Amino acid sequence: MSSDVASLDMPSEEPGVQLPSRQHVTGFGFYLYLLSDGILFAALFAVFAVLRTATDGGPDGHMLFSSRNAFIETACLLTSSFTCGIAMLACDRRNKFVALVGFLVTGVLGLAFLTLEIHEFADLIAKGDGPGRSAFLSSFFTLVSTHGLHVTCGLLWLGVLLVQFLLRGFTPAILRRFLCFSLFWHVLDVVWIGVFTFVYLVGGYL
Amino acid sequence: MTTQQRHDAQRGDSNTPGLEGREAHGSLRGYIIGYVSAIALTIAAFVIAPNTNMAPFSVVAALAVLAIAQMLVHLIFFLHINTAPAQKINVTAFAAAMLIIAIVVVGSIWIMGHLNRNMLPMEHLMQMQR
After folding, report:
1. A14 assigned to some structural domain
2. pTM over 0.90
3. What is the mean pLDDT of residues B57-82?
4. A105 domain residue, yes or no
5. What is the domain extent for residue A152?
6. How close does chain B come to A37, measured CA to CA in Å?
7. Fewer Cβ within 10 Å of end Cβ, chain B: N or C?
């Protein structure tokens, strides 16, 4: 533990000069990763926008998308982002109970989101409108399931983190991981705003 | 070890990207403001989308504006990106990413739209290849 920490957290030779702590370096690096993830999603959004009309005689967004389902998914993800923020505030104040409840609610809402999405995908594939039906559906499945895959990874990450948190409490390493997780989770919600607006609303109604 | 604890206990200093001081993760008030405005913007988007009295282009424009507004709400109130001097490097990196995203999205739609318009209809093309 100490060797890699020391390399980043060496006390400065000159008094008064503060080097950035490991948490700040990690947080900033993770932020850069999230920006690059945003570029990945931008490319998938561009593909969807280009292939939106390439339905090959198959169904288009008007026939397939349910805005009611998208609304419930949005509500789940937005609320989970909010509870994640509340849990981070509790971490700042070292309030173990509120942090635990906040992250658990975040995880449950994320799971609800994922269940709804998997149901929607299963329905589409059962009706024969899977990703192989048309270029439009391929791009739809790629975009939305890449987001879903991120949510799945986030949930696994949160589960592991919560076990570590229960065993060890507020250690610097766990606080740093919670910081990265909360950034990740908020960015997933930002991406979802794009998905529900441009896929489900623009694609479903216009 | 002790250095690490000292830094992490303080959770931030003046040259910290993304974190400032004790209130590194904003305030409860900030989260509630962000949550309520995000809900309002989401409901507005879902109400406007099925509207048949508006021209399709204006509906798309309205939805795009609402989406960008909501993304900004998330960035400011949930991700705490702001214009504080300590966050200069965050904002710079964010602007660079936004530039790439704009080039990718606008460029793809623009180029592919032109290609689509300038290409011969598919049946015609297939006849020419025979």
Report:
1. no
2. no
3. 91
4. yes
5. 19-52+66-205
6. 10
7. C
